[in-house]
Amino acid sequence: MLLTLWNEFEQNQGTQITNSIGNANVIIGMKLKITTFNYLSLTTKPGSGHLINPPTSEANVLKEWYNANKEEITELIQQMAYKDSSKLLPSPSANDIISVANALNTLKDVKTDWITGKISLTPGQQKFWFETCENCQKAINVDVGWVMRCPFCKEESRVVARPELGLLLMMVPAP
């Protein structure tokens, strides 16, 4: 995952992270903004905070996990797996799929769920795409194919069509 540091974060924590990049740093970020720039990334904003290598047992467990999986993590980074949605958010295993009734009982504790249902198109939808910056995928009201400087990521980019379907989901009880 990409972490972008701005302003004082770039100078302070950025320097600290850069100088210790090979040490399997554990970084705890607070009040970060989640963006889709470069697929999925985190960025600082006013009020953000960071802890680098906090002296906690949880941080030590994460460092041990990293050290045990270092070769696989290095390979995933070289493959740019952070750009592959099937690796970022893989489909659940058959053991993790439960009925809607059971899911409703666990939603208080679980933050991410996969839902099975019957999908139909929203009536009256005019088009099935919207125009975006090719780099940051933010919506832009410019014709597809134009090359322009994006007002969001500030990069020169081509305008591309991104699919958009208005869907209605009717939940189906498990058999």
Fold blueprint:
Layout: E1 2-4, H1 8-11, H2 13-19, E2 27-30, E3 33-35, E4 41-43, E5 49-52, H3 57-68, H4 70-78, H5 85-88, H6 100-106, E6 117-121, E7 129-133, E8 147-149, E9 156-163, E10 167-171
Parallel strand pairs: 1-4
Antiparallel strand pairs: 2-5, 3-4, 6-10, 7-9, 8-9
Protein name: Replication protein A 70 kDa DNA-binding subunit B-like isoform X1
Task: Name some characteristics of this structure.
single chain; 175 residues; alpha+beta; 2 domains; three-stranded mixed β-sheet; three-stranded antiparallel β-sheet; 6 helices; 10 strands; Replication protein A 70 kDa DNA-binding subunit B-like isoform X1
Describe the structure.
The protein is α+β, with helices and mostly antiparallel strands. It has two domains: 2-88, no CATH class; 118-171, no CATH class. It has helices at residues 8-11, 13-19, 57-68, 70-78, 85-88, 100-106; strands at 2-4, 27-30, 33-35, 41-43, 49-52, 117-121, 129-133, 147-149, 156-163, 167-171. The strands form four sheets. The chain has a three-stranded mixed beta sheet, with no helix packed on it. The chain has a three-stranded antiparallel beta sheet with strand order 7-9-8, with no helix packed on it. The longest helix has 12 residues, at 57-68. The mean pLDDT is 77. This is Replication protein A 70 kDa DNA-binding subunit B-like isoform X1.
